[in-house]
Amino acid sequence: MHVFKKSLKMFSTRFTHSFYLDVLKMLYEILNKSRREGMMAIEADVEEPASSPIFSKYPTVLADAHMTAFICDYLRIMSSGNMAPHELEGLFDQELESLKEELEHPAHAVAKVADGMPAMGIVAAVLGIVITMSILASASNAQIGEKVGTALVGTFLGILASYGFFAPLSAALEHDAKEEMNLYAAIKATLVASASGMPPTLAVEFGRKVLLPAHRPSFSELEQAMRGG
Length: 229
Fold this sequence. Notes:
It is built from nine helices and no strands. The protein has helices at about 1-10, 15-35, 45, 60, 65-80, 85-135, 140-195, 200-210, 220-229.
């Protein structure tokens, strides 16, 4: 069911230029508030992000419950003040490694189906030939041709399903997982930079530089967005 739901989302993607910009802007606002008013000032935002005036400004980010929880968990850890930046980075790395396995699972599952479909086509062809052989003595040439044609159609459908649908879907799912992992890596870079003492404007720049170039906001775009926010 998870693979099926993930596959349906391939018809559209949320990893766009504006979505990346929203994530960076939100991180900037929450870090800026914590820097000006102290980490305890964001406690209510972290505990109830749906009610937070900052998080609620970015519904596309808030809609991703897993990503929101990921950000809030690490902000909560940072607010404790008892973890060194390198320890925080180590914790990030461990969680991102397990997250990578989870995100790549749908692509791997569909790839297995793609690998098996040609074999299913061969099985269909063999069964069709077996049926054809069983009627050779009594069937006309037209009937034999029909049975052989049916067997070849089975082979064709197996190959078509594999290389025309499941293999491209697997590649799309894999690319989607890479884009999502890249965004998590950008969040990590931003929060670790902030924990290391970087000001919010520089911390989000660390995150921006980690993003894939295809949808990465420019320096001036991010700067303008932060001033506007």
